[in-house]
Amino acid sequence: MNNKHFSIHGTGLGLRRSMLRELQDLPIDPVNQVNFWEVAPENWINVGGNYGKKFRKLTEQFPFICHGLSLSIGGPSPLDEAFVHRLKHFMQTHQIRCYSEHLSYCSDDGHLYDLLPIPFTAEAVHYVADRIKRVQDILAQRIALENVSYYAAPGQEMTEIDFLNAVLQEADCDLLLDVNNIYVNSINHGYDAESFLQQIPAERIRYIHIAGHYNEADDLIVDTHGSDVIDPVWQLLENTYQRFGVIPTLLERDFNIPPLAELMTEVNTIHQLQSKWRVQVGDHLQHG
Q1: 91 in helix, strand or coil?
Q2: Is 158's pLDDT higher than 70?
């Protein structure tokens, strides 16, 4: 895959306000650095004062991307176009490289504070794709939708991968490929993670998420982003690089956040895997 497709490169980390004081101690060695940062725009739009100044300083120094929480792209309520316009201004102000959201919904006459599954139906494909296209028209750029973890599939008429690919095709948008979510769903819904990965359209992948989760039972995993990444998920990331080439990859950690120095251990694991697969498959892997 040609790296010119990507607006970012290397390894990223989700920025949390608790990290701001620690950032001045980031290692100087470029191998250990975070190449790009991701923020939820809802947490930073209109933030002023000391936090606002620190954030602006960071966006002037590092590449940033946005991963939204509240767009509710599959929700029944009207699309919040006022928010999208605020988002556009925020991205322009801070030179944000790209915007992604969850292929799910989180509102119905009010915010539901959870990411709920969109029915895997042809009707839902058309509905969601139209809303994605409207967001892209306002922002004047393509956005990326994330394959999400889910625990029930109400009204299912097609498989998850077929639904995902149909939305990407009809909306002509990109994919935020969450490797951990593939693993979580493969356990919870009894499908083969490798088979799912093989059906992903390479040209749609904008960047990758990787995270930890919680084992509720042998056949139930909860996607918490609150623990270290486990070996099978690291292996799935390697398999992703092997198949698609080295793609920008971001570590998510939303709960039980350790000191930044500890998080850098996993960031550096991503660096190491990327270096390994650059040597083995190169940065310009061609797909048949």
Answers
A1: helix
A2: yes
Alpha helix stretches (DSSP H) within 62-199: 81-94, 122-139, 160-171, 179-189, 193-198
As given in the structure block, the two tokens for residue 216 are 């509720």
**Are 180 and 213 contacting, i.e. CB atoms less than 8 angstroms apart?**
yes
Distance, in Å, from the CA atom of 245 to the CA atom of 209, rounded to the nearest integer, reads 15
Instruction: Please tell me the predicted confidence (pLDDT) of residue 218.
Output: 62
Provide the pLDDT for residue 112: 44
Tokens of 109: 């006459």
Going from the C-alpha of 58 to that of each of 38, 41, 61, 65, 72, the distances in angstroms are: 11, 14, 5, 12, 28
CB within 8 Å of 3: residues ≥ 6 apart: 9, 246, 283, 284
In angstroms, rounded to a whole number, what is the distance separating the alpha carbons of residues 46 and 134? 24
Q: What is the mean pLDDT of the chain?
A: 86
Question: Domains in the chain, ordered, with CATH?
Answer: 3-281 (3.20.20.150)
Query: Structure tokens of 131?
Result: 């809303």
The string of pLDDT tens digits covering residues 17-54 is 888 888 866 655 555 689 999 999 999 999 999 999 99
